[in-house]
Amino acid sequence: MKHVLSFTLNGAPVDALVQATDTLLDVLREKIGLTGTKRGCDTGNCGACTVLIDNEPVNACLTIALTVTGKTVTTVEGLVEGSELHPLQKAFHEHGASQCGFCTSGMLMAAKALLDKHPQPSRSAIVEFMSGNLCRCGTYLEVIEAIQAVAGGK
Amino acid sequence: MKDVGYFAPSEIGETLKLLADYGAQATVLAGGTDLVPKINCYELKPENLLYIGRLGLDYIKEKDGKLVLGAATSTAQIAANELVQKKATALAQAAYRSGGAATKTIATVGGNVANASPGADLACALLAMDAEIALASVRGTRSVAIKDFFTGRGETVRRPDELLLEIHIPIPKGKTVFWKLGRRKAKTLSVANTSVHLLMDGKKCVEARIALGAMAPTLLRCTQAEALIKGQTLDITAAEECAARAVADSAPIDDQRASAWYRKKAGQALVVCALAQAADINN
Ligand SMILES: Cc1cc2nc3c(=O)[nH]c(=O)nc-3n(C[C@H](O)[C@H](O)[C@H](O)COP(=O)(O)OP(=O)(O)OC[C@H]3O[C@@H](n4cnc5c(N)ncnc54)[C@H](O)[C@@H]3O)c2cc1C
Hints:
The complex is a heterodimer. Chain A has 2 domains: 2-78, Roll (Ubiquitin-like (UB roll)); 87-150, Orthogonal Bundle (DNA polymerase, domain 1), CATH 1.10.150.120. Chain A is built from 5 helices and 5 strands, in the order E-E-H-E-E-E-H-H-H-H. Chain A has helices at 24-31, 87-95, 104-117, 123-129, 140-151; strands at residues 3-9, 12-18, 50-53, 56-59, 72-74. Chain A has a 5-stranded mixed β-sheet with strand order 2-1-5-3-4, sandwiched between helices. By secondary structure, chain B is of the alpha+beta class. Chain B has 3 domains: 5-51, Uridine Diphospho-n-acetylenolpyruvylglucosamine Reductase, domain 2, CATH 3.30.43.10; 60-170, Uridine Diphospho-n-acetylenolpyruvylglucosamine Reductase, domain 3 (2-Layer Sandwich); 175-278, 2-Layer Sandwich (Enolase-like, domain 1). Chain B is 33% helix and 27% strand. Chain B is built from 11 helices and 14 strands. Chain B is globular, with a radius of gyration of 19 Å. The model of chain B has no long low-confidence stretch (mean pLDDT 96). The complex binds flavin-adenine dinucleotide. Flavin-adenine dinucleotide sits between chains B (27-35, 37, 52, 71, 75, 98-99, 103, 107-108, 110-112, 114-115, 120-122, 163-164, 189) and A (44-45, 62).
């Protein structure tokens, strides 16, 4: 049996027909066609699929899609405002905070969750909060610098 | 493939009725952080998912000398809660050190206990605090001491029609601490973990409870090690002897995180650290 899933995605209401075991990641990428959210490990370890549910960071690969019924989901596609990049996107770009780019959307969403709650986090708070997002190219220092730049209003 | 059913009831009565009807054919889904990786890797093929995130089971309150946690309270909530930080410190520490930001948001304390991993961090702290597990079914509610809850790796005394409803923690007298060692600093499963609960009278240990994790098929309560220090002066030598006793009966495994040999060494060192912290031993 398929189930109807209704939720708010990047500000707009959406419906999708899903299986009970489909994850939010499956639905975003394969049913809705938003492929900005990446599938890395599918076990919650790498953070590439980080999205916001009701403004809290979660791994979309660990989230059974039907559990977001009625909730608000924000993905990397929801960061831009019109043609303006989000300040975090600009800072990542300026600081070279990505190399292959696979982890970047997850990194951006985690960073947004952090700054929305703590606009001026210490360096160690940034390091700790971002510990769930792995980057195999090793851009950690640039990621931290980019987040610090946004927090410092630069 | 047979389609999987999905239920997301908003009332406990309805949930218990579904559990009574489906029993082992219903898989309780809380945060899904233990369950969903297994589904994604085809290790687990549930027949029906019973989501409990709409039951309002996310609360932390103090009642009759106990802290009461709803089973679906998230590890993020527990780590940030002042009541838990103050009165059940080891649990707040365990929650703080389990998973990363994005897993903490959804991972629940009930899931950590019900999953019965021998290295579960929150359950380790709860074991040192003699927590009680409230299980509900259409037949009524029963309370099980956490030391009797785990029967094997991934196995518990929970019957298929029972919902883990609440966790009750007798507010610890004295100090509780939690220590873990992982492969990296943050967001890491325990190679070994321990939680210690001590009531001291000056340098004398009046009460001691020691829990050890990732060292056997279930979490361990080290009653013989506890007996060694109870009623005795607790200095660093006594703490070292106690820690050696604590790991003596453990039976860790070799796996991708560590060897059994290393786990014993790590477990022993963690118990010394935890005892020293809980008893304020300075040398
Ligand atoms: C990336 C990652 C990192 C992790 N790091 C840690 C860590 O550092 N320390 C640690 O201890 N754990 C860790 N975990 C494991 C996991 O996050 C925790 O055990 C978590 O608390 C499980 O809770 P959940 O709500 O997600 O459980 P679920 O996956 O929803 O459920 C787990 C099991 O318990 C059952 N269940 C859940 N709730 C109930 C209930 N109320 N009644 C009856 N049965 C129930 C389910 O049927 C299932 O069998 C990690 C997991 C991931 C993916």
